[in-house]
Each structure stands twice: as C-alpha cells, then as structure tokens.
Design a protein that fits this description.
alpha/beta; five-stranded parallel beta sheet; Rossmann fold; 6 helices
Length: about 150
C-alpha cells in the first residue's frame, strides 16, 4: 500500500487530498509545517510527497529543493514530489523546484488520483530500472566482448 505524505497548513487542502485518496489503496501521513517534511520523509519513507506551495514559512518550493538537496547528498531516498499551486502563474517558479509534478488548486479529486497513480507508477519504473542497472550482468563476458 503506497504511503503519501501531505504537507499543508490549510485544513481544507489536507481534507481535499484525504478525500481524493481515501480507501484501502493509500496510507496518508499529514503534516502542517514544511520544516517537518524532511524528518517525516527520513522516518516514514513515503512513496510520494504532496506539498502545498503556500505553507507557513517554508513553502512547497523550499521543501522540494530541501528534499532534492538531501537526496543528492545521500541522506534521503528519492521520493516523487507533487506541488499544489495557487494559480497557473506559479508554474514558472515551481518548475525550478525539482518537483515531479504540479497541479493548480482547487484540484478535481479524479485528476489528483490519476496524477498520484502516474507518479507512483513512474517511481516504481525508475526503481526497477535503477535496480537493473545496479545488478551485475549475469552473462559471462570474455575479453573479446570487452574490447569495443
């Protein structure tokens, strides 16, 4: 069952995400402050982070950049990030946050579910490809194959 971390200081945003993802298919972790997202990702290792662009004094962009920085330093695993924007014009800045996807609020529940499922499927494919690249080649290679 995929675990989704939702970060927003607005009750209605968390309620909306919870309502869209309710059911036996998802476990939700909710936080109200951007500063606690990194710790929650480290401790709970969610499959997806959904973060509100406007959240307290550490917004969605800062959270996304922080998670990517920690990932690049090997301190956190890769986790897909979905940023919830306030307006279409916010896409310009959000593209620089290294988030995997963005949606403009208010969000249709069906669109949110589809986006979440797409991000989770893409992450599963990324992990599978990464595991295949990391595993040793099972076919023996002789010296003639190594010469290119």
């Amino acid at each position: 069952m995929p675990t989704v971390l939702v970060a927003s200081d607005a009750d209605w945003v968390r309620d909306h995400v919870r309502a869209a993802l309710v059911g036996p298919g998802f476990e939700l972790i909710e936080v109200e402050r951007g500063q606690v997202v990194r710790g929650a990702v480290d401790e709970r290792e969610p499959d997806l982070v959904i973060v509100d662009l406007q959240i307290g004094n550490m917004g969605g962009m800062a959270v996304a950049l922080d998670l990517r920085l920690e990932e690049s330093g090997g301190r956190l695993p890769h986790v897909p990030i979905l940023i919830l924007l306030d307006r279409e014009a916010d896409r310009f800045l959000a593209r620089r946050s290294a988030a995997d996807a963005m949606l403009v609020k208010p969000i249709d529940a069906g669109t949110l579910r589809r986006t979440v499922k797409t991000l989770l499927a893409a992450e599963e494919a990324r992990q599978t490809a990464e595991a295949a690249a990391d595993s040793p080649d099972e076919t023996p290679s002789g010296p003639e194959e190594a010469v290119g």
